[in-house]
């Protein structure tokens, strides 16, 4: 919805208003009810009159009241923020000491300004340039791999992922369904094909399933009296006719849902189970003589209670050719893969095995999840790999459960039903062929649905983190070394080791130029254990102590030379080279 308005006529639609209200449940809208910009039409068809635009819309008023931008920082960014705060605290502490020394001793204002400028240089302003350069190079490199970066830290965020959640249809598969077989139940196959063709030809909102049916079973255009569009939350769609050879209500949906009101013999149930285990998508067509059932339905659609099964349909969904190698790469990187889908769990599990996941995967359905309490739900999210017949709000709940466990979660989706889950994940990834709503909330968009580009993005994220880590080592060594030198020279000689111009030269050579080239030359490296700072201590501490000791020895050498009136180099007048600012020659 792009503007606010009111529903007109006798149309009906279900809207996702989660961006405005935070509620995941779909909201049915009929004549006279208001719709708001920022919500998404998930199913149905209706007309509405635009009444409020721009600043008058409800969404703009919410934005004006909140003025908040949601930005998820990566673990690396959070640690960098901590390090910068430590640097600032060190600088503030030294500024306080310099101010006290100015009041208690006879230092000139110029000396105090020089020392304050040196201390100010300890704050790593060049770190911002290094991070910006690293993120910018990563985005450019990923564009060459058909990956569009919509959030600056998205590539680096991918290198921290511990759990990768996938939607099956359109992500793991190509989302091109093919009707493989039709099995009539107590009716001739020709009659079943006729019903299927009429069903697909008269739907107002088509989908992949109806398009696959229409390609095999041509039908005639009729005048349906009522229709319930397909919804991933309901798992069924329906259409009603009051004319033709067999008037009534036709319902097409998941067998598990329809079998509650349209029971089948045990042999048919076992056949359904066998086909789903082979990786086929199975749907059931059922019929009710009560053609007015949908027309008289309540605000929330209900299936007719007296359905008769007419036939089973088997669809095959082609696995993406790069899926096997991609998932293999993630498993080798130690990333746990979970598949969350609205399809039958057995079908999803069969495709997962074709994609190379372990044969010892565990699966659970959305119906089973609905009967669990909060603790059991969190446990199921951790222990299971395949989640089938999952509703959009359950997808979001699963991602939230994984985040509560302390895992860093990425979610890949392509449909509107994935929007809620994408918003809950640390990193949201969308396919280019997905819905506009999905691409709008995603941090990364895979152009041309290039699923195989993800391992390259993962390595690029490691490269970015490695480069920033090396830059951080330089800044840490410089700050700690200069700080120790200031205290050491103050104790030994009651002087200050550097002037502002000398500090500028040291900064340019020590951290200025390297921060430009290190992000360019960085190589991918595994994620350090124990955090960024802790992993760098084995380098920072020895380097800081060594440099501080050498610098102090050099400083003391020239100090002794000045005291004894010895020239630093033969033939060079005293004071020409390496003058000691704190001690007059």
Which key terms come to mind for this protein?
alpha/beta, 585 residues
Commentary on this structure:
With 585 residues, this protein is of the alpha/beta class. It is built from 22 helices and 18 strands. It has helices spanning 18-21, 58-66, 75-104, 109-120, 126-143, 154-158, 168-172, 189-201, 208-216, 255-258, 266-277, 323-332, 345-354, 366-370, 374-383, 392-404, 419-424, 436-441, 453-492, 500-512, 514-521, 532-563; strands at residues 4-16, 27-29, 34-35, 40-52, 147-149, 163-166, 173-184, 226-228, 236-241, 248-253, 281-288, 308-319, 336-340, 363-365, 386-388, 409-413, 427-431, 444-446. The strands form 3 sheets. The chain has an 8-stranded mixed beta sheet, sandwiched between helices. A 6-stranded antiparallel beta sheet has the order 7-12-11-10-9-8, sandwiched between helices. Strands 1, 2, 3 and 4 form a 4-stranded antiparallel beta sheet that branches. Helix 17 links the parallel strand 16 (409-413) and strand 17. Helix 3 (75-104) packs antiparallel against helix 4 (109-120), helix 3 runs parallel beside helix 19 (453-492) and helix 5 runs antiparallel to helix 19 (453-492). Residues 65-69 and 571-580 have low confidence and may be disordered.
């Amino acid at each position: 919805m792009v503007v606010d308005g009111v529903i007109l006529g006798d149309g009906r639609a279900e809207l996702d208003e989660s961006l405005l209200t935070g509620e995941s449940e779909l909201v049915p809208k009929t004549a006279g009810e208001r719709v708001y910009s920022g919500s998404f039409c998930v199913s149905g068809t209706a007309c509405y009159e635009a009444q409020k635009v721009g600043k008058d819309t409800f969404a703009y008023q919410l934005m004006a009241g909140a003025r908040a931008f949601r930005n998820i920082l990566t673990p690396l960014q959070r640690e960098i923020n901590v390090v910068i705060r430590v640097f600032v605290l060190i600088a503030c502490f030294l500024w306080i000491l310099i101010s006290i020394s100015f009041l208690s001793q006879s230092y000139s204002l110029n000396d105090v300004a020089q020392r304050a400028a040196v201390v100010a240089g300890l704050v790593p302003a060049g770190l911002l340039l290094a991070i910006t350069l690293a993120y910018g190079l990563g985005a450019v490199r990923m564009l060459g791999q058909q990956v569009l970066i919509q959030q600056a830290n998205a590539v680096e965020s991918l290198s921290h992922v511990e759990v990768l959640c996938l939607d099956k249809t359109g992500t793991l598969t190509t989302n091109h369904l093919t009707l493989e077989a039709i099995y009539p139940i107590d009716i001739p196959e020709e009659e079943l094909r006729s019903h299927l063709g009429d069903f697909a030809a008269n739907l107002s909102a088509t989908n992949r399933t109806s398009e696959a049916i229409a390609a095999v079973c041509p039908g005639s255009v009729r005048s349906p009296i009522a229709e319930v569009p397909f919804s991933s939350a309901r798992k069924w769609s329906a259409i009603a006719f009051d004319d033709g050879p067999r008037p009534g209500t036709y319902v097409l949906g998941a067998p598990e849902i329809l079998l509650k009101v349209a029971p089948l013999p045990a042999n048919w149930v076992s056949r359904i189970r066998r086909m789903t285990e082979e990786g086929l998508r199975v749907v059931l067509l059922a019929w009710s003589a009560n053609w007015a059932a949908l027309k008289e339905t309540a605000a929330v659609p209900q299936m007719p209670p007296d359905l008769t099964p007419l036939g089973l349909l088997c669809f095959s969904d082609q696995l993406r050719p790069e899926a096997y190698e991609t998932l293999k790469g993630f498993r080798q990187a130690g990333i746990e893969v979970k598949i969350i889908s609205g399809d039958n769990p057995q079908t999803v599990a069969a495709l997962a095995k074709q994609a190379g996941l372990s044969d010892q995967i565990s699966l659970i359905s959305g119906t089973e999840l609905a009967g669990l309490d909060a603790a059991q739900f969190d446990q199921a999210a951790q222990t299971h790999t395949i989640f089938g017949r999952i509703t959009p709000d359950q997808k979001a709940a699963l991602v939230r459960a994984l985040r509560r466990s302390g895992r860093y979660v990425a979610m890949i989706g392509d449909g509107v039903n994935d929007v809620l889950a994408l918003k809950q994940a640390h990193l949201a990834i969308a396919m280019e062929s997905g819905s506009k709503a999905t691409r709008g909330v995603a941090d990364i968009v895979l152009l041309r649905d290039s699923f195989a580009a993800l391992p390259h993005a993962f390595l690029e994220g490691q490269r970015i983190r490695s480069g920033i880590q090396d830059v951080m080592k330089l800044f840490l060594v410089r700050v700690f070394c200069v700080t120790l030198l200031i205290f050491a020279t103050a104790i030994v000689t009651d002087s200050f080791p550097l002037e502002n111009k000398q500090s500028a030269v040291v900064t340019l050579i020590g951290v200025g130029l390297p921060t430009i080239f290190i992000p360019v030359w960085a190589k991918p490296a595994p994620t350090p254990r124990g955090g960024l700072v802790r992993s760098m201590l084995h380098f920072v501490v020895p380097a800081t102590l060594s440099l501080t000791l050498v610098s102090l020895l050099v400083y003391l050498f020239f100090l002794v030379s000045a005291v004894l009136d010895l020239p630093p180099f033969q033939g060079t007048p005293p004071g020409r080279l390496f003058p000691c600012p704190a001690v007059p020659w």
